[in-house]
């Protein structure tokens, strides 16, 4: 892989490995170009209060429409970017873009809304991460109270001490933190107490087939109750049907996200959806 070996070490690979290695190198080059030419975009997916139907936040999700290859999903290029270190640049771009967008919406007169940004484990583990976030907020004029960072539980478990330091620094700056994909990783409830987090996002794998599998409903219920005893708000991901929303309502889930309300959409579509064309 790109950073582990010197470039010449590919001479020792088998032809098949050589092709894989070349594919990664090609993709690395494409990601670099995309950063340089500003080819990435951010789409936004609303988060809704389960009980009132009010939109309480947005999750920013990166999009890449490649001129020749067409749409390349983040599940394809984010892991590669993590592998070759470019995730740091992508991550900075994403945070800056989301902050800029937030400020643009305020300038247009829209009611301020919290924006959640995904942070990769690699970014979180950099010693200067919290500082980077502070600099970006300063540069963009972003109010930290409206920035939320989503991190996966595994990313914190890998390097707990340093990560908690970073999380505390972010929290002190006024940034909110959420645990993403909850239930898919180590799933230790112990850290809910230790970590300075505000939100818990229940992974869509539990939510999607909750109607078919009653055990999932029990799991979700337990997660919500436990999160609440720790003072956390719960976001259910991947809500696609009314029946699922009804169930979440019964279980006292706080917020949801999913195709049922809206897919992730570009900023202009979001403006139409949330604000009409009129500033509030
Ligand atoms: P995630 O953070 O768990 O994001 C949720 C994913 O579920 C998104 O896929 C979203 O489009 C999709 N989704 C939302 N509602 C529904 C639904 O009702 N049904 C279904 N089937 N899917 C739904 P997306 O945008 O393809 O992103 C995939 C993953 O890529 C994300 O998972 C996240 O881990 C990563 N990712 C996306 N954007 C970024 C980014 O800016 N930075 C980093 N580091 N990772 C990102
Ligand atoms: Ca997420
Ligand atoms: Ca998630
Ligand atoms: Ca995920």
Automatic annotation (TrEMBL):
<feature type="domain" description="EAL">
    <location>
        <begin position="24"/>
        <end position="278"/>
    </location>
</feature>
<protein>
    <recommendedName>
        <fullName>Diguanylate cyclase</fullName>
    </recommendedName>
</protein>
């Amino acid at each position: 892989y790109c950073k582990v070996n010197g470039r010449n070490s590919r001479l020792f690979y088998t032809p098949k490995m050589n092709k894989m290695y070349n594919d990664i190198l090609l993709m690395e080059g494409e990601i670099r170009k995309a950063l340089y030419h500003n080819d990435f975009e951010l789409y936004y997916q609303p988060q809704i209060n389960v009980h009132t139907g009010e939109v309480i936040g947005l999750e920013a999700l990166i999009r890449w429409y490649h001129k020749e290859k067409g749409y390349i999903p983040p599940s394809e290029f984010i892991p590669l970017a993590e592998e070759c270190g470019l995730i740091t640049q992508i991550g900075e771009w994403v945070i800056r873009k989301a902050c800029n967008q937030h400020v643009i919406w305020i300038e247009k007169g829209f009611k301020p809304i919290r924006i959640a940004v995904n942070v990769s484990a690699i970014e979180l583990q950099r010693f200067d991460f919290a500082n980077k976030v502070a600099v970006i907020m300063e540069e963009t004029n972003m109010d930290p109270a409206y920035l939320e960072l989503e991190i996966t539980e595994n990313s914190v478990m890998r390097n707990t001490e340093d990560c908690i330091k970073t999380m505390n620094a972010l929290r002190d700056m006024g940034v909110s933190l959420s645990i993403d994909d909850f239930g898919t990783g180590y799933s230790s409830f112990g850290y809910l107490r230790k970590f300075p987090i505000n939100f818990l996002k229940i992974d869509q794998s539990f939510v999607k087939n909750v109607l078919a599998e009653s055990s999932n409903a029990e799991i979700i219920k337990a997660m919500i109750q436990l999160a609440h005893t720790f003072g956390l708000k719960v976001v259910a991901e991947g809500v696609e049907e009314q029946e699922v929303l009804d169930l979440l309502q019964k279980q006292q889930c706080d917020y949801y996200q999913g195709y049922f309300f809206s897919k992730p959409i570009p900023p202009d579509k979001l403006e139409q959806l949330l604000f009409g064309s009129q500033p509030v």
